[in-house]
Amino acid sequence: MIARNRGRRRSDRRRGAASLIEVLAAMAVSSVLFLTTGTVMVLVFRLESTGRDELTATVAEGRLAADLRADVRSAAEVDRDGQGPADGLTLVAPDGGRVSYRSDGSDLVRTRAGGEGEPDRVDRYRLLPGTLSRWEVDGDRVSLVLDAPRRPKAEGGNRRVVRIETTIGRDLRFSGGAS
Hints:
Blueprint: H1 2-16, H2 20-73, E1 77-80, E2 89-92, E3 98-104, E4 107-113, E5 119-125, E6 132-138, E7 141-149, E8 159-167
Antiparallel strand pairs: 1-2, 2-3, 3-4, 4-5, 6-7, 7-8
């Protein structure tokens, strides 16, 4: 009888405890789950950052297009600041005020100065890193060409070209005959 009780006690103890193999299997499964969760979190944060950069660049391109069109239409003459692909442009208003555009890395910087020459306002248009800008002046037509990178897996190549065009001195918004 004593032998029977001892045998039962051993099996009772074994039922409540986990074996080494079970513990290792549980650790392996939880490690795989943690690694998968970590990888997904890294991808989500990277995607969020890329999406935010692209949204910021798109909004900046829209603001840049509106400001550039308004500045060129109200200008009396254009001065080119250089001949290279990242050259600048200076617009001179009839009242002597100046608005200049220049590249600063991937960004475009717009500086507006009054008749005294002191800068009134400086605007920075944050474009996607790696964006190249090029100014084209043909008679009274001014164009800004932005050559922006796309995501590597995007269709249709790896660059996106945006052209902003307008004509000098064609601001008819406040004239009597314009509609």
